Fold this protein.
Amino acid sequence: MKSFEPLYRPFAAWLRPLALASLVANIALIVTGAAVRLTDSGLGCPTWPRCTDESYTTTAAMGVHGVIEFGNRLLTFVLAGLAIACFLGALGGPRRRSLVRLSVAVGLGIPMQGVVGGITVLTHLNPWVVGLHFLLSVALITVAFAFWRRIDEGDGAPVPLVPAPMRTLAALTALAGFAVVAVGVVVTGSGPHSGDRGAKRNGLDPAAISQVHADLVFLLIGLSVAVWFALRALQAPAPAVRAALTLVVVELAQGLIGFVQYFTHLPVVLVAAHMLGAGLVWTATLAVLWSLRERPALSPAPLTPSPAQEPVPAA
């Protein structure tokens, strides 16, 4: 492995921007997936892993829907390329097992995402499988974020920067944030934008499930505001206070888009913006959690003198 280290070093020099690019690309995948669904291009490539029974690529006969669906599939290769570059970068610098493992986790998540996307096509856009596809994107964003932040951290045990009750409040906020995202997926599965005119919906009442989603949004915003005020009252480190304020601002913007799209009957532009907002809300939530602790560098182990070096007692 060491004989290849000169090949890894250029990637190590660019590891931080590569990790950020990987995170951004995984968020972008949510938007391109939304474009597929909102343009009724979910079955633009009607089979998987090929685009048609005879071709791996789209054909002229498939029109714009085939181009959109196939373009979304191509983004998988961009994600895979970035994941490989991050893995090589983790190998090329000072070898840190934590970075290597996280880069591998990001890399393994991408083919998993491709397989779930294939199942989505083969099940003719089953709304529950489509929802799983989205939630896997959320998991990938989480791992990619952890990899990006870990580059600037040490490998020591996490050191809390705020008291335990504050960390519990932040964890409850993150749990509420995930619940908002998950129920939002169910709302999408009950709505009109199915990805194809013939695709089935989940059968739930859109108004009722949207009300549950809205209630959870109010809970999330309330908890996030509480986190911000509590961090200010505790005189927590400035990065933590800024992260909490950023989360509140992103949530308010996302909530405004959500309400406007609902009362304007789900225009595709606002729905796409709301999908992007879901990824940004979750990323901002992760930033708050990471700001509440730090990882110092590992201290070198104390040297133990060998028996030959031990001092001889005075007579």
